[in-house]
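Technical note accompanying the year-one report. For the benefit of new consortium partners, we illustrate the data format agreed upon in the data management plan: each record pairs a sequence with a structure-token string. No post-processing was applied to the example shown here.
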Amino acid sequence: MIDEEGEQLGVLSLDEALTTAAERGFDLVEVSPNAEPPVCRIMDYGKFKYQASKKAAEAKKKTAKVELKEVKMRPKTEEHDYNFKLKNARKFLDAGNKVKVTIMFRGREVTHPDYGKRLLEKLAVDVQDIAQIEAPARMAGRFMSMVVAPIKK
């Protein structure tokens, strides 16, 4: 048994340990049940749980959240509009997010998937300094999409 300051009190029976903890105004907590004999500690369990939750919240706060942002274009997107979409994609990648680039085909445009493929390849080349292709271009119905992720530093 270990007291609230971390000093060992020795091997005690369960009744003795419970009365000692009650006299000191703390809880008896089993720390290592698999040890022989089991190790118990006198502590304020509510305070312990509170501090553990605070540590967990602090650790969660420091983790990076990666979102999947989407940039949509058409196969006949002109140069100025393409540059605008490229600027947005670069901004998302700089923020550490993945970017899904989607080409939407309407009507008979779907018969020329090579236009969309060329546009996606051009974008991949334009962002290759800060990103890498995570999922290559593939067709799904009337949409062709590709996912690019920022390069780990």
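Partners are asked to follow this layout when depositing records. The chain has a mean pLDDT of 89.
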